[in-house]
Design a protein that fits this description.
With 480 residues, this protein is α+β, with helices and mostly antiparallel strands. Helices cover 43% and strands 30% of the residues. The strands form four sheets. Strands 15-16-17-21-1-20 form a six-stranded mixed β-sheet, with no helix packed on it. A six-stranded antiparallel beta barrel has the order 2-10-13-12-11-14. Strands 3-9-8-5 form a four-stranded antiparallel β-sheet, with no helix packed on it. Helix 2 runs antiparallel to helix 7. The two termini are 59 Å apart.
Length: 480
C-alpha cells in the first residue's frame, strides 16, 4: 500500500512537471505570435528641413542681335538655350527679298535726291510746292475726315434703328418654328396642361437666351459707335496737325527761311537712307547670313522663318563672360523655408565639382504657383547653361515634443501613434498598443514635431514593429 502511494505521488509530480512544461511552451508560442515592438519616448529635437532642387546657371548680361527691319527671314539656325561662338550662323534672310528691298532703297534715294534738286531751284518753286502740298494735305485730310464721319453716322444709325428688347423678342418668336408650334398648341381650347407647361418652359428658356443675345448685340453696336467716334476724332486731329505743318512749310517758303530748312531736312533724310542701304548691301555681301559675334547662349528668339524682321531685336544672346546666376524652381510649400541670405550648396552632375555656401539673393513667386530662387555664382569655372542640384539644410525650429517618423502613422486624413500600456489579463500583466491621434506641426526627413500637450515624458510609444498592429493589440516590447 505504501508503494502504491509513493508511485502515485511520483506520477502526480511528473504530471505537474509536464503541465509546467506545456504552460511554458504555450506561453512561448503565444508570446512569439505577438508583434515585437521597440518602445521610445518623446524627445526634444531641432528639426532640419532638407531642400533639394535642380536648376540652371544663367546670366544677367544679354546682348541683342538686331538686323534691318522688313527683311523676310528664310531660316533660323539656332534654338533657345544653344551654346554659340563667334562666327556661328544665327539666322538667314532671303537673298532675293533682300535684293528687291535694295532696289526699292535705290529708287527711294533717287526720288529724295530729285526732291532735293527741286529744292535747289528758285524760291518761287519752293513756294508753289509748299502751296500745292498744303492743298494736297487739306484735300487728303478732308477725305479722311469725311470717310470717318460717314462711318460714324452709319454706326449711329444702325445703333438707333436697333429694336427694343420687346420687339427683338417678338421678331424672334415669329421666326422660331418651335415657339409658334408650341404657342398654337397652348392656345387651343382643348389644350392640355402639359401643352401649356411645354410652351411656358420653352418661352422661359428662349427669353433667357434672347436677353443675353440682345445685350451682346446692343453692346456690340455701342462699341462700334464708340470706335467710329474715336476714329473721327483721330481724323480731325490728324487733319489739324497735317494742315498746320503744311501751313508752316508754306510760311517758311514765303519768308525765305523754309528753303534752307527743307534742304537740310532733305539732306538728312537722304543720308539716313544711304546708311540703311549700306547696311543692306553689307547683309547682301554676307549672302543674307547673320553671324554670332560673342561667346554665349541663345536666349529668347523673336523671329520666325517666313516672317519679316522688325525694329526690335531678332534674338537675344546671353554673354558667356557675364555675371552668372543659379536659378531653381521649387514647390510653393518650400518658400516658407527659404530666405534671402540662406546659403546653398551646388553639385554639378557627372562627377562635377561642388560649390559650397552660395547665398540666396532672392526668392520670388512664379505665375504657375511655384517659387524661384536666385543665387549669384562667382566661380569662373562655372559655365552658363550648366545644370546643378542645390541642397539646403535649414533649421526650422527646436521642439520639445518630437518623435521619429517611424512612430507616426496615417489613417485617411489624420495622424496617430501607438502608446504602449499595461493591461491585467487572466494570463497576468500584458502590454497593449493604444491608438492615439496627434497633430503634426512640423517635420523633417527623420522626425515629426507634435503639439506639446500630446504626451508626457513617461509615455511609451511604438517606435518600430515587426508586424502590423491595431488598436488594442497585445505587443511584446524588446530592447533596442
Amino acid at each position: 500500500m505504501r508503494k502504491h502511494r509513493e508511485r502515485a505521488a511520483m506520477y502526480f509530480g511528473l504530471f505537474l512537471v509536464f503541465m509546467l512544461f506545456c504552460t511554458i511552451v504555450s506561453r512561448g508560442i503565444y508570446a512569439s505570435q505577438m508583434p515585437k515592438v521597440t518602445a521610445g519616448n518623446i524627445e526634444t529635437k531641432t528639426l532640419v528641413r532638407e531642400i533639394e532642387a535642380n536648376g540652371t546657371v544663367v546670366t544677367k548680361e544679354e546682348v541683342p542681335v538686331v538686323t534691318e527691319a522688313g527683311v523676310l527671314v528664310e531660316k533660323v539656325c539656332v534654338v533657345e538655350g544653344q551654346k554659340v561662338e563667334p562666327g556661328d550662323l544665327l539666322f538667314q534672310v532671303e537673298t532675293e527679298d533682300l535684293k528687291r528691298i535694295l532696289q526699292q532703297a535705290d529708287a527711294q534715294i533717287q526720288t529724295e535726291e530729285a526732291k532735293l534738286s527741286e529744292l535747289n531751284a528758285s524760291g518761287s518753286t519752293a513756294v508753289n510746292r509748299a502751296s500745292q502740298d498744303l492743298q494736297d494735305a487739306a484735300d487728303t485730310a478732308a477725305g479722311d475726315v469725311g470717310r470717318a464721319e460717314e462711318a460714324y453716322q452709319a454706326a449711329v444709325r444702325e445703333r438707333d434703328s436697333f429694336p427694343s428688347q420687346e420687339e427683338y423678342k417678338k421678331n424672334a418668336y415669329k421666326k422660331d418654328a418651335e415657339y409658334q408650334k408650341l404657342w398654337k398648341a397652348s392656345q387651343k381650347k382643348t389644350a392640355a396642361k402639359a401643352d401649356k407647361n411645354a410652351f411656358s418652359s420653352y418661352k422661359k428658356s428662349m427669353d433667357a437666351s434672347l436677353s443675353e443675345s440682345y445685350a451682346q448685340e446692343k453692346s456690340a453696336l455701342e462699341d462700334a459707335v464708340s470706335e467710329k467716334e474715336a476714329a473721327l476724332s483721330a481724323a480731325n486731329t490728324s487733319r489739324s496737325e497735317t494742315i498746320k505743318q503744311a501751313q508752316r512749310a508754306l510760311e517758311d517758303a514765303k519768308n525765305g527761311g523754309g528753303e534752307s530748312g527743307a534742304k537740310k531736312e532733305q539732306q538728312n533724310q537722304i543720308a539716313l537712307l544711304k546708311e540703311n542701304r549700306e547696311r543692306l548691301l553689307k547683309l547682301q555681301q554676307e549672302e543674307g547670313k547673320i553671324f554670332c559675334e560673342i561667346s554665349g547662349y541663345v536666349g529668347r528668339i523673336s523671329v520666325l522663318a517666313g516672317e519679316r524682321t522688325t525694329d526690335a531685336s531678332a534674338l537675344v544672346l546671353s554673354d558667356a563672360n557675364g555675371e552668372k546666376l543659379f536659378q531653381a524652381v521649387l514647390p510653393q510649400e518650400e518658400k516658407a523655408y527659404l530666405t534671402p541670405g540662406d546659403k546653398i550648396d551646388l553639385s554639378f552632375p557627372n562627377g562635377g565639382r561642388r560649390i559650397l555656401g552660395i547665398p540666396i539673393e532672392s526668392v520670388g513667386d512664379l505665375e504657375d504657383g511655384t517659387c524661384q530662387i536666385t543665387a549669384k555664382i562667382a566661380d569662373p569655372q562655372v559655365i552658363i547653361g550648366q545644370t546643378a542640384e542645390m541642397n539646403l539644410n535649414k533649421e526650422v525650429g527646436r521642439y520639445e515634443c518630437s518623435i521619429p517618423l517611424s512612430a507616426l502613422y496615417h489613417d485617411n486624413s489624420s495622424d496617430f501613434v501607438y502608446l504602449i500600456e499595461e493591461k491585467n489579463t487572466i494570463l497576468g500583466v500584458e502590454m497593449t498598443a493604444r491608438k492615439q491621434k496627434v497633430k503634426v506641426i512640423d517635420q523633417d526627413a527623420s522626425y515629426a514635431a507634435l503639439e506639446t500637450d500630446a504626451f508626457t515624458e513617461e509615455d511609451k510609444l511604438v517606435i518600430e514593429t515587426d508586424k502590423e498592429i491595431k488598436d488594442g493589440a497585445r505587443v511584446r516590447p524588446v530592447e533596442e
